[in-house]
Amino acid sequence: MNELTLLYRGPLSSCNYACAYCPFAKRRENRRQLEYDRSCLVRFLEWARAQHNWHLRVFFTPWGEALVRRYYREAIVELCRLPQIEKVVVQTNLSAPLAFASQCGDKLAIWATFHPDWADPKRFLAQCRRLDQAQVAYSVGVVGFARFRKAILELRQRLAPSVYLWINAVKAQLDELAEEDRRFFSHIDPLYELNTQAYASRGRPCGGGSRVVSVDGEGMLRTCHFQSQPLGNLYDRQWWTALRPRLCLTDHCRCYIGYVHLEYLQMNRVFGSGILERIPSGRAPFQIKEVVVQSHSLAPMEALENHAHHLFSSGQPVLPDLAGQ
Ligand code: SF4
Ligand code: SF4
After folding, report:
1. Which of 22, 120, 145 to mutate to test the pocket of ligand 1 (most atoms within 8 A of CB)?
2. Which of 12, 169, 189, 293 could be stapled to 37 by a disulfide with Cβ–Cβ 3.0 to 4.6 Å?
């Protein structure tokens, strides 16, 4: 059976939040635009229904917030009921009603992001508990601004210890980030440094365009979200002829949803089957374990004492061997 991961990104670009660091904040769509987005999703769903010879994973990576739209929640439930769908993952701010999650069986996984300026922590944590009750796998991320440290720490203290909390590195501002802040982020997320890199990618094999493909609302297929050249169209009769192993055409790959498919990084060693939803694998060469942090030299890091954190047993993530890259 053929396998494929589709990164679906339709035209929807509005959000119920307005994060200052987001280019899509405050965007509003009118009824006609939303109807167009819905029709694109319906078409994608019809296509998925017909793919009996494939094992598919669908990752919704919207420009804005999709789950606040009922038609996305309904489409996800329907996708999860199709035998050819192995997994559905969605990026979300976790503000939407989550009743649909319990109808998805074990096929749904969530990439949740907590936005301290917009999300109420209590409500966010209540939403996490709803996912726990529905037995939905999820990770939680926060953008790595130093001003979010307090919120990040409180979130870490209140999230279930088994939930991976990751920090999204603000790569454009890394040079200005204090060493103390950088260590704090690594302390919260032992994989933080993996996300601070701009990985050399030009001319290197990537799963993009063969194992993984980006698809927009019109069905246009691309290697990934970061390369504009169309490869073909999902709604062509022989759409799969667009898929073949490819080398990356850009110098660097900086975004998690891209570089995890860069072959030489072997990120599957770190994330295994949780690579889309960004959940490190228990089968990784290191084991995440819950430890109580007894001491830390960074003020106000003493607040970390007596709180459970995820660290690797070695205290350090195992970084891919990047020598000579
Ligand atoms: S929740 Fe996400 S999509 Fe919405 S404004 Fe914030 S960063 Fe942008
Ligand atoms: S390495 Fe990154 S930019 Fe290059 S093809 Fe893969 S996902 Fe796209």
Report:
1. 22
2. 12
